[in-house]
Design goal:
The complex is a heterodimer of chains A (202) and B (191). Chain A is mainly beta. Chain A has three helices and twelve strands. In chain A, strands 2-3-4-5-6-8-9-12 form an eight-stranded antiparallel barrel. A three-stranded mixed sheet of chain A has the order 1-11-10, with helices on one face. Chain B has a domain at 6-130 and 183-189: Beta Barrel (Lipocalin). In chain B, 12% of the residues lie in helices and 38% in strands. In chain B, the strands form two sheets. Chain B has an eight-stranded antiparallel beta barrel with strand order 2-3-4-5-6-8-9-12. The radius of gyration of chain B is 16 Å and the shape is globular. Chain B starts with 21 loop residues before the first strand and ends with a strand. Classes of the chains: A mainly beta (202), B mainly beta (191).
């Protein structure tokens, strides 16, 4: 995978959340419902990689899933850009907290067999959506305090935290008003103004 | 007539549910073919159905473009992937397009050739993309102006089978250019 692809995919798939794994998508016990506030086109990039800049189409499907189509912004340079990825995603509101789950299904037109689940918390303010990932240290503290079932093991780059609780317990845990504090900001995207149809002729 | 997905109404873009005319050879093989850098990037506009959409031209290492079309707006659901090469014949610019997938599903039953697409970029940066009119193309084939198969009846898909040299000569004639009647998309650069 080229550098831009790694950064781009990480940005879109909430890649940094991989150090905290969940056994089920967030919201499994209550059911998913598309958030219409996410529909449309978004633009953004990670703080570290200009090559991660991209457009992100959020298409709401009738079955309460979403399709996210991410397109690299550096389309003119095939060595630096010209790629795209597709995710299928679901959203759910637990308490007043909004969560998103995603799996990458296509990368540059090829189906992705590695259907890793990524989940995060998000907020939308002033046409900016911010995605947050679970913070491994905070979740580890929750596990140690027996507020959620899980395991903590030493990984290659730090501790690997795996939540093992059932779907209902996870959803109840993340419904709490204090749940957003367990997440750390990952990236933000700005809404792109939609093209307007031409005015009617008089 | 081959029924196809709705937003194919987007570059494979099916007028009235039919595939637009295709060519068995790409347009422009007798001239120097190279990717047109003016297309690369993101465009926004409306299709001939009035729906807003974004079109991403992604330049590939093999010189082709991958074109991603995505509806936009609160009720948007459809996205399509097209592959295309570009060619210039005189002052006229063409895409040779092939629909690859619709909403992630591979396109089945598409014609074997490519869809000739005429595009123009005006001084204001407006990109107008047009397909050949099916009826007008059938009439030219039947009149012997170009070698091809007009398809069965009024609804069969027209296929131009002329060899590359004859095809390129034909595509520069006023009669051929006149078949690109109705703009499919009118786009403005978004990036």
């Amino acid at each position: 995978m080229r550098v831009w692809q790694a950064a781009f995919a990480a940005l879109l798939t909430l890649g940094l959340s991989a150090c905290v794994s969940l056994p089920h998508p967030i919201g499994t016990s209550v059911g998913f419902r598309n958030d219409p506030a996410l529909a449309g086109l978004w633009y953004g990039k990670s703080d570290k990689e200009d090559s991660s800049a991209g457009y992100y189409h959020v298409l709401l499907n009738a079955d309460d899933t979403m399709t996210l189509v991410g397109v690299a912004a550096q389309a003119a340079n095939p060595e630096k850009g010209g790629g795209w990825v597709v995710l299928t995603a679901t959203t759910v509101a637990l308490g007043g907290n909004h969560y998103i789950n995603g799996r990458e299904i296509f990368e540059d037109g090829k189906p992705k067999d590695d259907a890793t689940l990524y989940s995060g918390y998000y907020t939308i303010r002033d046409d900016t959506v911010t995605i947050y990932a679970l913070d491994d240290r905070k979740v580890a503290a929750e596990i140690k305090a027996h507020r959620i079932a899980g395991t903590i093991t030493q990984g290659r780059f730090g501790q690997d935290v795996a939540i093992t609780a059932g779907a209902a317990d996870v959803d109840r845990w993340l419904s709490s008003p204090r749940a957003p504090a367990l997440f750390t900001p990952l990236f933000s995207l700005r809404r792109v103004k939609e093209p307007q149809p031409p005015p009617p002729l008089h | 007539m081959k029924p196809v997905h709705a937003l194919l109404a987007a570059i494979a873009l099916l007028l009235a549910g039919c595939y637009p005319p295709t060519t068995t050879h790409p347009v422009g093989t007798t001239a120097a073919q190279k990717p047109d850098p003016v297309l690369a990037g993101t465009w926004k506009g409306t299709g001939d159905d009035g729906k807003p959409l974004y079109v991403h031209f992604l330049q590939q290492t093999d010189g082709s473009f991958t074109i991603l079309l995505a509806e936009t707006g609160a009720k948007a659901q459809d996205w399509n992937m097209v592959t295309a090469t570009t060619a210039a014949l005189g002052s006229h610019r063409f895409l040779n397009a092939r629909l690859l997938s619709s909403n992630g599903k591979p396109e089945e039953g598409a014609p074997a050739g490519t869809i000739p697409v005429l595009y123009r970029l005006d001084a204001k940066g407006v990109l107008t993309v047009s397909l050949m009119d099916e009826g007008a193309t059938k009439a030219l084939i039947k009149a012997g102006k170009v070698k091809g198969d007009p398809g069965q009846g009024d609804t069969g898909d027209a296929t131009i089978t002329a060899d590359p040299r004859a095809l390129d000569a034909f595509m520069q004639t006023p009669a051929a250019l006149a078949t690109f009647k109705k703009p499919l998309f009118v786009l403005h650069r978004a990036d």
